[in-house]
Write a structure and sequence with these properties.
- It is a single chain.
- The chain is an alpha/beta fold and 396 residues long.
- It folds into 2 domains: 138 residues, Alpha-Beta Complex (Aspartate Aminotransferase, domain 1), CATH 3.90.1150; 234 residues, Aspartate Aminotransferase, domain 2 (3-Layer(aba) Sandwich), CATH 3.40.640.10.
- Helix content is 41%, strand content 14%.
- It contains 13 helices and 12 strands.
- The strands form 3 sheets. Strands 2-8-7-6-5-3-4 form a 7-stranded mixed β-sheet, with helices on both faces.
- Helix 4 packs parallel to helix 10 and helix 5 packs across helix 6.
- It is globular and about 70 Å long.
């Protein structure tokens, strides 16, 4: 037979999923590899979904989603200070990942360059490659708390650059943009006439301070914000996200939904409307829990220098595993085999995360604590073993 598509086969598989599948065949594993809230979806949301199904909301919806949900999202944004947002800016998607992909497809041509964070979520690279564009990593340095810098961006930008992708609160680093960082990123994009896709799906989980969106500086409609329901409302399996874009871009993104996915689930959309009616305190409970877990992780791993940075948001942390070597894929597998702890290999997030593994704080506290203790024990044992090895060739 003729070969399969070059583009599809050239895209690397996520190391997160590889560890997840390997762990699924093993018993008694502590799962810290996947970013999925351990909280149950609030009962009000589940009830609303059931009522919607019984009421007949089981058919196709418009590509951009139910008008009622688009209006509800816009109203929530207006209440949060985005006074310029209307339903025309909102596109409802089956998960935030679809919103990210359609935002890229709507703005990028084959051969364009897209600036992506390193370390950053590996799907950014994959969706850029699917467009026939070139992902160009920009360095996020541990010394700066994994904050993007003009220098690292300017070093890789070129006349072919078309789009800048940003993420705050950040996966995998837990970094959170300051007001000044967000402003500088927007000014960089504006000066070079770049579109911006701002991944803000973890916006509800900032442990100290407030979430700073690049959209607050946008004067010409170049910023596309992506968020969703999966993290904030513990609805990962419901597959419900959205994009906020200037109406001309939103129209194109909605059009792209048709050949890709048609529309988001009608039942999930009605559940999303119920989610937006919940009091803010419900999300606040989850945020405070993740903040406590970040403290616990820092007590166990940070106290001995194993945390690359203390998480300030989202629910992830990068762990320094250089004591065990530099190949994070091998280390993640060895850690799973010897200690029964599943982690995400740092290499899947980019070159700047090699010799690390990512752990998710979205695990029950006692499980997270035990997992961190096992990681620390593993690294201490490896260090002792290496220290006992001969340091040079035997004497003659």
């Amino acid at each position: 037979m003729k070969p399969l598509a070059d583009l599809a086969t050239s895209i690397p598989r996520s190391g997160i999923r590889e560890v997840m599948e390997l762990a699924s065949s093993m018993d008694d594993v502590i799962h810290l590899e996947v970013g999925e809230p351990d909280f149950a979806t609030p009962e009000e949301i589940v009830e609303a979904a059931g009522e919607a199904a019984r009421a007949g909301y089981t058919r196709y919806t418009p590509n951009a989603g139910f008008m009622s949900l688009r209006r509800a999202v816009a109203e929530r944004l207006v209440a949060a200070g985005r006074s310029d947002v209307t339903y025309e800016h909102i596109v409802i998607t089956p998960g935030a990942v679809c919103a990210l992909a359609t935002a890229v497809f709507a703005t990028v041509n084959q051969g364009d360059e897209v600036l992506i964070p390193d370390p950053g979520w590996p799907n950014y690279r994959s969706m850029v490659m699917l467009c026939g564009a070139e992902p160009v990593p920009y360095e996020l340095d541990r010394a700066t708390g994994y904050m993007p810098r003009d220098g690292s961006l300017a070093a890789v930008a070129s006349p072919r650059s078309k789009l800048l992708m940003t993420n705050s609160p950040a996966n995998p680093t837990g970094a959170v943009f300051s007001h000044e960082t967000a402003r500088q990123l927007y000014e960089f994009a504006s000066a070079r006439d770049l579109y911006v896709v701002s991944d803000e799906v973890y916006e509800s989980f900032v442990f100290d301070g407030r979430h700073e969106s690049l959209a607050q500086f946008d004067t010409d409609g170049r910023v596309i914000v992506v968020s969703g329901f999966s993290k904030s409302f513990a609805m990962t399996g419901w597959r419900l996200g959205y994009a906020i874009a200037a109406p001309p871009i939103a129209v194109i993104m909605a059009k792209l939904m048709e050949p890709l996915v048609s529309c988001a689930s009608s039942i999930a959309q009605k559940a999303g409307e119920a989610a937006l009616r919940l009091p803010d305190e419900r999300v606040g409970e989850m945020r405070r829990s993740y903040a406590r877990r970040a403290v616990l992780v820092n007590d166990i791993l940070g106290s001995v220098g194993l945390l690359m940075a203390v998480p300030r948001g989202a629910f992830y942390a990068l762990v320094d595993v250089s004591a065990a070597g530099s190949n994070s894929n091998e280390i993640a597998r060895d850690l799973l085999r010897t200690e029964r702890v599943a982690t995400a290999p740092g290499a899947t997030f980019g070159a700047q995360a090699e010799a690390t593994v990512r752990i998710s704080l979205a695990a029950e506290e006692s499980v997270l604590v035990e997992g961190c203790r096992r990681i620390r024990r593993y690294l201490e044992d490896v260090s002792k073993e290496r220290a006992s090895l001969p340091s040079g060739p035997p004497s003659s």
